[in-house]
Amino acid sequence: MWIGLIQLVIGLIVLILGGEFLIQSSVKLARYFKVDPIVIGLTIISFGTSFPELVVSLNAALSGHPDISLGNVVGSNIANLALVLGVASVIKPISVSLDTQRIDWPLLIFITIVFLLTAWFWEFSLYAGVVYVLLLLAYNFFMMRRGKLTADEVEEVQVIDSKGQMIRTALILILSFIALIFGSDVLVDGAVAIAQFWDVEESVIAVTIIAFGTSVPELATSLIAIRRGELGLGVGNLIGSNIFNVLGIVGITSLFETLVINDHLLNFDLWLCSVLPVFIFPFIIIQKSISRGLGFILLASYLGYILYFF
Hints:
By secondary structure, this protein is an all-alpha fold.
């Protein structure tokens, strides 16, 4: 049990560090090769914080642990909206832009409902994976047309000014990928060991411990956004992360392995994952913000969710 716990902690630390260095080195290289900042913001910044979830879910599915794969996605989306958004809004109420009210949040609800309907009436097979990846590409294209980007984060990264520095950055990028693969492998092994020791379903470990750990980048991003006063940026990153979790992680993983969702995830966790964005939406429309009171409600719901398991 202790070995599994140590593996879990080591895996999470390696994933967080690997994800951070991956984003930083990717942005540096993209700027070196004069890639459009909009493309950098959409592909690297917006989805970069979800790379750990992608590697963990893909690794788990290919290792014969689909419960961890789907549980990680469902648990991460719950953590993003209940924990991360809750903490951020308790620290400081978050005003929500008109675009987010009219487009982004309804789009998140739509994607979440598609996820729920796929689980209920279809399966996460190759065909579903193709549809999800196509939807992800369409979403990226749509966002590029709108011209949304995180320019501040792109500008913060130091520009590469020499070929030697470019090579070092490329090596860091490669090592970051290796770290993500290693970290995900150790994390999955630790989660399986803990689940076997406590005789609980692997999905329980996935939607709680693993999901919390892989949501740390989103939490860090949101807190940094609060410190800078860019509160809308924090909400945008959470929406983009949740959409990528469903379309990107489930979609890409389904291309390689058919995912079968277990009854508990289907009848409880997935419903909570689907209800949360619908529950928050009226507050956004009426208050034009995510208030401190709503933040406390979201935090309390997440704590209750975790206590339900343990």
